[in-house]
Amino acid sequence: ITVIEKPEMPILSDPPLTLRYSLNRPTGSLPLKELVKGKRTICIAVCDSTRPVPNHVILPVLIDEICGAGVDREAITVLIATGLHRPSEGDELREVIGDEEVLRTIRIYNHFARNDDDHVFLGKTERGIPVKIDRRFVNADVRIVIGLVEPHFMAGYSGGRKLIAPGIAHEDTIRSIHAPFLLEMSGVDNCVIDGNPLHDTLLEIVRMVGECYAVNTVIDEARRISFINFGDIVKS
Hints:
There is one protein chain. The chain is an alpha/beta fold. Helices cover 30% and strands 22% of the residues. The chain contains 9 helices and 10 strands. The chain has helices at 15-24, 32-36, 55-68, 90-97, 100-105, 135-138, 171-177, 180-183, 197-209; strands spanning 42-47, 76-81, 107-110, 119-124, 130-134, 142-148, 151-152, 156-157, 213-219, 225-232. A 6-stranded mixed sheet has the order 3-2-1-6-9-10. The chain starts with 14 loop residues before the first helix and ends with a strand.
């Protein structure tokens, strides 16, 4: 038996402070407060329970910074990026969000990939994949995802763009990007970004959605935060 573990990694001494710094000094975008100032609707997509994203650290800081720019909490929606997984409810939802005030004061919805009316059809990719994305995200004035970056057996690495597809995509889109014709292409593999057709397709879908931003984080073997940043969904 071979056990593959992450190597020892540096650990952030104050993740909330690091996140606040990143929100004000982003990668490839304006600072968060400038992005959200005067906006009426802000949608934040977060992973479901299949990804150990430290939302309990990220969401309170992110929402506090948004509200600090004069945005009312009523303008904020959190969308659970379930893909084709079950919805997060009850104790599982509490674990995913990780903060009681966020649960109590922010509108939180599960994405349901089979609900046709919940999605907007944006066209097809160059490879013919139909792009249907949750309209609550597409129609928001500001779109933010919270992702965990780690090796992924098809997309090279997780995080960022994967929150949109498959995260909040329609079943037709999800099944298309998991189809053999795409997954059997050369370059679709662990830790491969350059020349990965699946990665390229996910980026194409992001461009069809429009301007998106991301909080991306990296955790160690014990799920402690090693890295966190904010900015343009691709550049971050």
